[in-house]
Design goal:
- By secondary structure, the protein is an alpha/beta fold.
- It has 16 helices and 16 strands.
- It has helices spanning 23-32, 67-79, 96-103, 105-112, 138-142, 163-166, 173-182, 186-199, 235-246, 254-259, 275-278, 296-302, 321-325, 345-348, 366-370, 382-390, and strands at residues 10-15, 46-51, 83-88, 116-118, 124-129, 132-137, 145-149, 151-155, 159-161, 204-214, 222-232, 269-272, 308-312, 331-332, 355-356, 376-380.
- The strands form 4 sheets. Strands 1, 2, 3, 4, 7, 8, 9, 10, 11 and 12 form a 10-stranded mixed beta sheet that branches. A two-stranded antiparallel ribbon has the order 5-6. The protein has a two-stranded antiparallel ribbon with strand order 13-16.
- β2 (46-51), α2 (67-79) and β3 (83-88) form a beta-alpha-beta unit.
- The longest helix is centred in the middle third of the chain and has 14 residues, at 186-199.
- It is globular.
- The relative contact order is 0.15.
- Bound molecules: iron/sulfur cluster (SF4) (2 copies).
- The site of one iron/sulfur cluster has 14 residues, from α15.
Length: 393
């Protein structure tokens, strides 16, 4: 595979039922298939651990990497003589301190005495790669070793978010809104994610698939018990394996097609558990994904009729996060919202909801991603609904 170079295309799988007793042993057994933690961490090396801290949700919601997985990893890194730090830069309009608190990372890092870093405020270096311009947070570039710890989740725009997409968190959060504007289509955003991954490539990725997310992820889907951990030095091979486990068509994951030059079926060596043994009996993929297998010339012709756009439910409390997150400025809250700005959220629920300027919407799903109330669902256009009924796109 072109992106892997000489890196091993080996993916390790381990069954793990929960985040309590047994997790440490499962992680150790998982990494043993890749040569153990010592194959990645040498004494004295700085090790940046990059979880998915998307927003301020509790670990049970399966929106963020569970802190117990990172705790177990931090201990292994220390046993190998490494110096761990935990860092992320969420694409969230929630206050980062709230994200750290709700996700359990502030407490876990304090208990383990490991630094917790906001990548947004740590300086960055600008890059231009594969036609994309973006910055990478300096601590990611300075670390001797990067260990990427994604959550296994569906994604309404990319279908899957796991190892490759988690490295998008290496881009300072304040840039992400502009990047969505600069890369408004699924294909363009997939190319951006691939370019970021090529620039900030992790040495090891460990996917938290113990409790994942199905349906309309990455924040509004259903938490689902999956019961496995997966790891690889090759994040692309890891994501391809997750597609097999979850029965997701890899071509529906835009960045995988870019990173494999379309060779999505190249073999991957699996160690430990088998794909069949960890695959869930059923798994729901997002309801509204844009077509990716249609030739681009045809897509250009039908684009005005093929879109996904947000719809807002009565769960809305008028917090305005979606309005602030929208890169296209396609949302506004009514100036004269019923009730008052000083009402408590529960009193505002169902009395206000954002208004959408449909022609401005680029279907980026940022509003869906940041809503704390799961009040946003992404809806396909009538033509897209018909196309999806015909065959998986
Ligand atoms: S849809 Fe969600 S994010 Fe937007 S205003 Fe309502 S509650 Fe807030
Ligand atoms: S309304 Fe939502 S989907 Fe549309 S551009 Fe704004 S954030 Fe993206």
């Amino acid at each position: 595979m072109p992106e892997s170079g000489t890196a091993p295309r080996k993916v390790a799988l381990a069954a793990c039922a929960g985040y309590g007793p047994g997790l440490d042993e499962a992680l150790r057994a998982l990494l043993a298939h890749l040569g153990g933690i010592g194959a990645f961490v040498r004494p004295g090396q700085s090790v940046l651990v990059k979880p998915n801290l998307l927003t301020d949700k509790e670990p049970e919601r399966a929106v963020t990497t569970h802190p117990a997985v990172v705790r177990a990893l931090v201990r292994l890194v220390r046993q190998a003589g490494g110096k761990p730090l935990v860092a992320d830069s969420p694409n969230s309009v929630a206050k980062l301190t709230k994200v750290w608190e709700a996700s359990g990372f502030r407490r876990m890092c304090a208990e383990e005495d490991v630094p917790l870093l906001n990548l947004e405020q740590a300086g960055s270096v600008a890059f231009e790669k594969d036609g994309c311009r973006f910055s990478i947070a300096r601590p990611v570039l300075d670390a001797d070793v990067i260990i990427n710890v994604p959550k296994v989740k569906t994604h309404v725009l990319m279908t899957l978010t796991a190892a490759v997409k988690n490295m998008y968190g290496a881009v300072p959060g304040y840039q992400k809104t502009q990047l969505h504007r600069d890369h408004p289509t699924v294909a363009a955003f997939g190319r951006l994610l691939a370019a970021v991954y090529r620039t900030a490539r992790p040495h090891l990725s460990i996917a938290d698939g113990i409790r994942g997310m199905s349906g309309d992820g990455p924040s509004a889907g259903e938490p689902v018990q999956l019961g496995f951990l997966a790891a690889s030095a090759d994040a692309v091979a890891l994501d391809l394996t997750l597609c097999r486990i979850l029965r997701i068509e890899p071509s529906a994951v835009a960045y995988l097609a870019v990173l494999t030059d379309g060779r999505l079926d190249d073999p991957v060596e699996i160690a430990g558990e088998t794909v069949a043994r960890v695959a869930p009996a059923s798994f729901r993929t997002p309801g509204a994904v844009l077509p990716r297998l249609i030739p681009s010339a045809v897509v250009r012709l039908i684009r005005p009729l093929v879109w996904i756009r947000p719809a807002f439910s009565d769960r809305c409390v008028g917090c305005g996060r979606c309005v602030r997150a929208c890169p296209a400025q396609a949302l506004r809250l009514p100036a004269q919202a019923p009730g008052g700005a000083n009402d408590r959220p529960e009193e505002r629920r169902g009395r206000v909801r954002p208004e959408l300027a449909a022609s401005a919407c680029i279907g980026c799903c940022c509003c869906h991603e940041v809503c704390p109330e799961n009040a946003v669902s992404m809806r396909p256009s009538p033509l897209l609904s018909i196309m999806r009924r015909g065959k998986p796109l």
